[in-house]
Design a protein that fits this description.
Length: 339
Amino acid sequence: MQNFAIRKHSQILYFDIRDEQWPLVYDDKYNVSVLGLEKLHIFDAKKWGNIIQHLLRAKLITRDCLVHPNEAKKEDLLVVHTKKYLQSLKWSPRVAVIAEVPAVACLPNILVQYAYLKPMRLQTGGSVLAGKLALERGWAINVGGGFHHCSSDRGGGFCPYADITLLVRFLVDNEMIQNAMIVDLDAHQGNGYQRDFLGVPEVYIMDMYNKHIYPKDKEAKRAIRRKVELGHLVEDSEYLLKLHKHLKAALDDFKPDILVYNAGTDVLDSDPLGHLSITEEGIIQRDQFVFEQCKKRKIPIVMLTSGGYLRKTAKIIADSIINLESKGLIGSKVTDLDE
């Protein structure tokens, strides 16, 4: 990747997993609790744990199946982030803007670091690890991450760290891939990593989002190779038709070494921020199609759960993962992409 100087990084975030484990990355410390202030945000701060609870109740997995990531430390974050940006996170009012919880501005930063930023750094480490596992197993899911509004020098929209950029950079810098495709199906434009990958032809970006909502970042849009802008209240039929058309075309245009799938569920009907009208079944069909295309074309896929602001979102994500397993698209066995 000509725009980046190749350099090896600390292998703390990368490690091998047991054969019987799934490349399903999660830790109970993903979940956010800030003296109850997280309840002031529309986001379900326990979403990630609730996904796992649904999967456990469905007996799809046991806790022994899960892979527990390591937290991304300062030296890891500096692979992408500027020192100035990381320093700014030591100021609680700045973090309050990113987290979209104004009351956080009044808290001691040591508490903000522990209760909010540390879980986000753990999820970021999970995204980086999931990228490696996807190459080894054919697929991986980080039950978290997808902080697509964060770039190297700015956060926002509940996204404090640029985990998508870091995922790709770690793979490139460790010479595990030469190129990547990001397919972002969150309801919002993924402006963070788009700013990071402006002018980088080895990263192909397809983004399908509601053009009428945050962030409306014109500069970042220049990085999108296949832009699919939606209006308010788009329903399943139009949404899935456009997805089928544009994802197939994107994969015909560009053969990536890995596909990073940002699978936001804020496209759900009645989501207060996404303003689209996709049903639960529509989301399940969407995820299945993306995984099917990757399996058909022998492309490793790493899925990040990203946005989704309703309490029922966790069960929908779990149901989608259960469906992927029932279709033979994921599972405990290693996927042989060379078959």
